[in-house]
Write a structure and sequence with these properties.
271 residues, mainly alpha, 59% helix
Amino acid sequence: MLLRHEPLIRAGAFACMLLTVALWEVIATRRPQRIHRRLRWPSNLAIVALGTLVVRLVFPLAAVGAALLATERGWGLFNLVSVPIWLTVIVCVIMLDVAIYFQHRLFHAVPWLWRLHRMHHADLEFDVTTGLRFHPLEILISMGIKLAVVTLLGAPALAVLIFEVLLNATSMFNHGNIRLPTRVGHWLRLVVVTPDMHRVHHSIVRQETDSNFSFNLPWWDRLFGTYRDQPAAGHLGMTIGIKAFRSAHDLRLDRMLLQPLVKENGANGRG
């Protein structure tokens, strides 16, 4: 039953969050944007559709399907021990989140993985669609890692679905070009990654790019020493993106797909 409705649940949550954050960006904008949405959004949304199609073709069951299969076959830790389902769900959601944190760090540390991941960073503005902009090959590798973690944990399908919906929603939220009251933002970043926290990660400055890797829960950066409170130039003064890709032509879908083949030079180049 859960697997049958999983695409509908995810699509509904995706559409609601995208529309909510997009409207929020209009009502309470954090940073003025010099590149109009009409130049960025078509390619950013097209890459989402392409990535989703590729994942469904290569991994028809996806993460929820892998969880159901693991339960059926008795694979993974939580299929071998007796733990209340509510506790299993909570622990698995947290473990999946920390796995994504370390995966994110890996994509920054390994040059050939960075070539895939830097397409996400090469957006010249920072808004809700930036949170959806990932190269299809990166999405495939990420899904492979996620399937392995789900199987090793023996995570129940409910935990995986909750995590997938949360990860997708928080990615759009923490990439939103939205303004939060200062006090609210300060306390909120103790429990979830906020836009001001994650925006630092999209700085053109290498040291700031290699910080604030968390997507959902914000604790991992503080725990593992990668937390940075603010960008050196301030949120209104910082430059978004990568030095090697500053042209509006780099925002085109074909350029985005071919970007991993382009060598990156300069101060923050990694190969």
